[in-house]
Amino acid sequence: METNKDRIIEQIHQMGFIISKNIEQNRLDSWLFLNLTMSQLKGLVYITFQENVCIRDLSQTLKMAQPNVTNLVDFLVKEGLVSREENPEDRRMLMLKTTAKGKKLVAELTENILSEMSRYLMQLSMEQLQALENGLKPLAKLVQEGHNQIAINKQ
User: Fold this and answer.
1) Are residues 25 and 41 in the same domain?
2) Number of domains in the chain
3) What gap in Å lies between CA 71 and CA 62, rounded to an integer?
4) Which pTM was predicted?
5) Does residue 106 share a domain with residue 72?
6) Is the dihedral of CA 21, 22, 27, 33 positive or negative?
7) What's the CA gap between 111 and 107, in Å, rounded?
8) What is the domain extent for residue 107?
9) Could you give the CA distance from residue 54 to residue 87 in angstroms, rounded to a whole number?
10) Which residues are bridge partners to 86 per DSSP?
11) Contact assessment for residue 96 and residue 84, using Cβ atoms and an 8 Å cutoff
């Protein structure tokens, strides 16, 4: 038997899907003009948002063989999006860092999504915005706590 809470949760899922689908379409439009494969883009984004990434870490994260990841990184380095730097703790290991050009590209892609969302949010009344903020705060807190717990469990 479906409860009122179940019905509301289902409606939230449906609304989230509608929002996500439309925002993702904007993201896809931005990504289609990039001179990067999806794996290269994933690698660039991962390197950008992580600290001290090595080829082995990237290989495990992308679930790709190390030689393939090396080729991927070679391309990102050639394009000036990523650099290889010596690890001060282990000089045998090179660390991957996003260059200013790579950070700018990732920031532009992120900004496209934020500006798209802002266009919609600006059309809401102040009361609607406050209600949305109040509704999302507890969800954001739970998601953040869950993310932190996952990070702790991985260690």
Assistant:
1) no
2) 3
3) 13
4) 0.68
5) yes
6) positive
7) 6
8) 36-123
9) 9
10) 94
11) yes
